[in-house]
Amino acid sequence: MHEALLDVVTGKFNPVGKMLFTTPISEKAVENNREDVPGYMEGEGYALFKYDEGMSY
């Protein structure tokens, strides 16, 4: 465990976090979504956080 932390701190490993699903922006967006379409294909105004968006350093 300590080695993994040191790898991140020293820059040997670049951690990445990605969304596994789309998070709706509101309850209204959920109520108006299309049942047969995944959240990441809903279009503009649906997602607060989009599928496969992420962070790294």
> Reading side by side through the largest sheet, how are the strands ordered?
1-4
Report the order of strands and helices.
Answer: HEEHEE
Task: Quote the average pLDDT.
Answer: 86
Q: Helix coverage percent of residues?
A: 25-40%
Shape: rod-shaped
Give me the count of strands.
4
End-to-end Cα distance, whole Å, is 20 Å
Radius of gyration: 17 Å
Count helical runs: 2
The structure class reads: alpha+beta
**How much of the sequence is in beta strands?**
15-25%
Number of domains: 1
Low-confidence residue ranges: none
Overview of this structure, please?
- The chain is α+β, with helices and mostly antiparallel strands and 57 residues long.
- It has one domain.
- The chain is built from two helices and four strands, in the order H-E-E-H-E-E.
- The strands form two sheets. Strands 1-4 form a two-stranded antiparallel sheet. A two-stranded antiparallel ribbon has the order 2-3.
- The two termini are 20 Å apart.
- The model has no long low-confidence stretch (mean pLDDT 86).
Please summarize what this structure is.
With 57 residues, the protein is α+β, with helices and mostly antiparallel strands. 26% of the residues lie in helices and 19% in strands. It contains two helices and four strands, in the order αββαββ.
Walk me through the topology.
Layout: H1 2-10, E1 16-18, E2 23-24, H2 27-32, E3 47-49, E4 54-56
Antiparallel strand pairs: 1-4, 2-3
